[in-house]
Design a protein that fits this description.
This protein has 8 helices and 7 strands; from the N terminus they run H-H-H-E-E-H-E-H-E-H-E-H-E-E-H. It is an alpha/beta fold. The protein has one domain: Glycerol-3-phosphate (1)-acyltransferase (3-Layer(aba) Sandwich). The protein has a 7-stranded mixed β-sheet with strand order 1-7-6-2-5-3-4, sandwiched between helices. Helix 1 packs across helix 6 and helix 7 packs across helix 8. The radius of gyration is 18 Å and the shape is globular.
Length: about 260
């Protein structure tokens, strides 16, 4: 692939970055700033971080899952669908509706959590930033030069491993929002580019201050009507639209069943 081609692809995906917001993590004390440069490993292979990850998953997360169950009545519906992508890499997407929805998502894949793409300030918040990094957080760069490296490492992970990468297509959190907001195309760009499935997940609220997670069936590009023979940008748009429709149906069916 030519340098010009790589730049074009990176620009397309970079255009899907969420706008900067004043979220919870950004309002927290950030004593150490994260510097992204040409040597930064987005999908880290650091042995010490791997040790901390497995320590957190096997020692800490079982207590966290118990807390989620007691505090929010957390329950997963359709967890068996995650097994359909167990032997392949995949993009996972979900509505972003709770401050703890990222660690909740890890329960679906336990003990092999997906990488979570998150805004840079989530890695700079005191204590929380370290936990985000340990639990496979991946910072989203804001400049084109670093995004090209991010893009290459994402491709390598999706093409050469069975890892999952989670991206919130709504980009911003909206606590306890029952409807889907506008989706950005970035997650689906990576899925189409690397020919990997998208696993849709939706958070729903059975009652006030309670939360469940529904795992849908994986969506492959071949499942999306009208994509055959189209160029990648158009396939990406159609994939985004189709997955959002499937997620909306999951939500509608759930709330319809509560009536």
């Amino acid at each position: 692939m030519t340098e010009e081609g790589r730049k074009t692809e990176a620009e397309e995906a970079a255009g899907e970055q969420p706008q900067r917001r004043k979220g919870t993590a950004e309002r927290m004390w950030a004593p150490i700033k994260l510097h992204l440069d040409e040597d930064y490993q987005y999908m880290t292979k650091n042995v010490f971080l791997r040790f901390l990850y497995y320590f957190a998953m096997f020692v800490g997360m079982p207590f966290a899952y118990l807390f989620f169950k007691i505090r929010w009545g957390f329950h997963v519906i359709g967890k068996e669908n995650a097994k359909l992508v167990r032997k392949t890499s995949a993009i996972t997407v979900a509505n972003h509706v709770h401050n703890m929805d990222s660690p909740m998502l890890t329960y679906v894949f336990y003990p092999s959590a997906p990488y979570f793409v998150a805004l840079k300030h989530n890695f700079e918040a005191f204590i929380i930033g370290g936990l985000v990094r340990v639990l496979r957080g991946v910072p989203l760069p804001s400049d084109l030069k670093n995004f090209e490296r991010f893009f290459e490492q994402m491709n390598d992970t999706l093409q050469n491993t069975t890892r999952k990468v989670h991206i919130y297509p709504e980009a911003e959190i909206s606590p306890y929002c029952k409807g889907l907001r506008k989706f950005k195309n970035g997650a689906f760009h990576f899925a189409v580019k690397n020919d990997v499935p998208v696993l849709p997940l939706t958070f729903v609220f059975p009652k006030k201050n309670k939360i469940n997670l529904i795992v849908g069936k994986p969506v492959y590009l071949k499942d999306v009507p009208g994509t055959e023979g189209l160029k990648e940008p158009k396939q990406t748009v159609l994939m985004c639209r189709y997955v959002k429709e499937q997620m909306q149906k999951m939500i509608d069916d759930y709330y319809g069943g509560l009536k």
